[in-house]
From TrEMBL, chain A:
GO terms for biological process: transmembrane transport. It is found in: Cell membrane. Residues 68-277 form the ABC transmembrane type-1 domain. Keywords: Cell membrane, Membrane, Transmembrane, Transmembrane helix, Transport. This is ABC transporter permease. GO terms for cellular component: plasma membrane. The chain crosses the membrane at residues 12-39, 74-93, 105-124, 157-179, 213-234, 254-276. Signal peptide: none annotated. It is a multi-pass membrane protein. It holds the Pfam family BPD_transp_1.
UniProtKB/TrEMBL annotation, chain B:
The gene is potA. One of its GO terms (cellular component) is ATP-binding cassette (ABC) transporter complex. It is an enzyme of class 7 (translocase). GO terms for molecular function: ABC-type polyamine transporter activity; ATP binding; ATP hydrolysis activity. It holds the Pfam family ABC_tran. SUPFAM superfamilies: MOP-like (SSF50331), P-loop containing nucleoside triphosphate hydrolases (SSF52540). This is Spermidine/putrescine import ATP-binding protein PotA. Belongs to the ABC transporter superfamily. Spermidine/putrescine importer (TC 3.A.1.11.1) family. It comes from Rhodophyticola porphyridii. GO terms for biological process: putrescine transport.
Amino acid sequence: MTLRALDRIGMGFFLGLPILWIVLFMLVPYGVLLTYSFWIKSYPLFEPAFQFGNYLTLLNEPQYLSVIGRTLKIAVIVSVTALVLAYPFAYFLVFRLKNVTIRKVLFFGVIAPLWVSYLLRAYLWKTILGTQGVLNSTLMGLGIISEPLDIFLYSQAAMVITLTYIFIPFMVMPIYAALEKIPRNLDEASADLGQSSWTTFWRVTVPLSLPGVVAGFTLTFCLCFGDFVAAFLVGGPDGLMVANVITSQFGAALNWPLGSALAVVMLVVVLAIISLSDRFEQRTKVQF
Amino acid sequence: MAAIIELDSISKHYGPVVGVNHVDLAVEDGEFLTLLGPSGCGKSTLLRMVGGFEVPSAGTIRIAGVDVTAAPPQQRDVNMMFQDYALFPHMTVGKNITYGLERKGIKGTAARDKAEAALELVGLSGMFERHTHQLSGGQRQRVALARAVVREPKVILLDEPLSALDAKLREQMQVELKHMHEKLGITFLMVTHDQTEALVMSDRVVVMEAGEIAQDGTPEDLYERPATPYVANFIGTTNFLSARVVARGAGLVTLEAGNQELKATDVATSDGQAIGQIGIRPEKMQILKDTECRPVNVLPGTVVETIYQGLALRTVVRLSSGEEMLVDEILRQGMLHSDHPRAGDPVVLGVEPHNILLFGAER
C-alpha cells in the first residue's frame, strides 16, 4: 500500500468514528422518535401507523399546551433573571476590577459549580428552601418566624431560583468572553468625545457585547426548556415542565407515541430558537 | 503666542515606580509639539494626563488657563487620536464622527454637514456610510483625525499616530499630518518614539528620559546641539570618544581623545560639567584623500568594513586607540562605491572643530 492510501485510511478512521457515533446515537434516535410520534397507542402497547393524532391531542387537550406554555414562561423568566444578574457581574469583572487575580478568582467562583454534579446542585436548593432547611432555621433563629414555613419549596419561584443558580455559568461565560474582546480604549475614546460613562455603556459596551448576550440567552433558555430535575426536586404540583410530562409518557403512562410527539415539538421549539439566535448573532457581530 | 497647555511640576507615581517626575512644560497655542523618547520614558503617561485619562500624583495642568488637573476627559477641550485609532467598530464612519458632536448639542443634518466637512478635510469625502472594517489602515487613521477635528478642540493629542502604518504610508502621512496642522491652526501635541517622525513633523520637540525632560528645542537644536549624550544618541547616530582637556584658549579647547589631539570650539557643556567625552556625527567627518588639504583635526585608523546603504556609504573605522567610528558619506554622482577604501586599508578621518560636540563625563 502506498503511503497516501495508508494516510487515507487513517483519516477515514479519524473522521469516520465520530461521524458514525453521531449518526448512531443522535440522528438515528431522532428518526426513531419521529417515527414513534406517528404511531398509535393500542393497549397494552402501540402499533405502527402514519397519522397525526398524537399531535392533535397535544393541540386539543389544554393540559399539554399549558405545560408547554409554562415551560416557555419559566425558561424565559430564568434566562432574563440570569441575564440581569450575569451581565452586571461580568461587566464589573472585566471593566471595573483592576486586580487580575481577584478577577480570575471571582470568574472561577461562578464557573466552579459546573464541576459539581448537576443533580447535587439542584438538591442543594431543596435543603435550603425546605421546611427543615437553612432558610427556615435562619429565619426562626432570627425570631422573624416562629414556625417553619413550607411556602419556599415546591413552587415555580423555587424552580426559577434553582434553575437560575444552575444555569447562570452558561450566561456569564459568553458575556464575559464578549466583554473581554472589546478594546479598552473604546471607553476612553467615548469619554474623550464628551460622552458620559452611562452613555458609553449603552452605546458602545452593550452593542459590542450583544453576541455574548445572545449566546448566553440561547444556552440558558434551551437548557432550561429541557430541564426536568428542578421540577422533580423543588417544583410543586403547578411546576411540571414538558420534560417531566415526556418522562411520564414513556414511563407510567406507557404512551410512547404521545411522548415522542411531545419530544418532537420540544425539539422543533429549541431548533427554532437556535436558528433565530444564530441569525441575530450574525447581525450583531462586529469585526474589531 | 500664549501657552494653551501649561504643565506645572507634574509627577506620576505608580506605587514606588516614578512614571513622570516634576515635569514643567508650556505648549504654545498653535504649535506642533512632540514628546519623544523610548518606551517607558513617561511620554505617553504625560499625554494621557493631558487628555484626562490619568490623574497626576502631583502638579497642576492648565488648558487655556483653566485648571483641569482633576477634570475628566469629558470636561477638557482636547481630543485624542488613539494609537490604534479606537474607532467604534459597530458604527459607520459617519456615526463615529457625529458621536462626538452629540454632547455639543449638534444633531441631525447639522451634525451630518459638519461630519462631511471633516471627512472632506481629511480626504475621505463620500465615505460617510462606510463601515470601519471596510477601511484601510491609512483611511482609519484619517477617520480618527476627522473624529477629533470635528469637535474643534483647542488641542489635538496624538498618541503614536503613525505606528500602525507601514513605512511608505507612514512617510506620506507625516507630511500630510503636518499640512493638516498648518491648515487647521489647532495645537497638536504628539507622542512618538520615532525620531524621524519627530524631526519631520514638529515645530518643537521635547526629548524625555526616565520621566524627565532631557532637552526641549526645535528639531534643528536637538540634532545640531544635543544637550546630553542621551539626546545625541537617541536622535541620529553619534560616535562617542572619552576626552580629556589639555589646553584652552582663543575660543578653542584642545582635547586628547582617541590617542590624538583634537581642537574643538569651546562651548560650555549643557550640564555645566567638565568635559569628559566628545561626540561626532557620522556625516560630519570625512575620509581624507591624499590630495586634500588637511583640516584642523585628523584621526588615523583602519577600515573595518563598508556598508552600502544606497543613499550613503557607511564606513566603520577602527582608530589606533581601538575605538570604532562610523563615517557616513552621501554617494554623489561620480563617487563610485568601488573607488572607496576597503576593509584593511589605512585611512585618515578629518573633522572640523565646530563639529565636535562636548559632553560631561560618562555616567
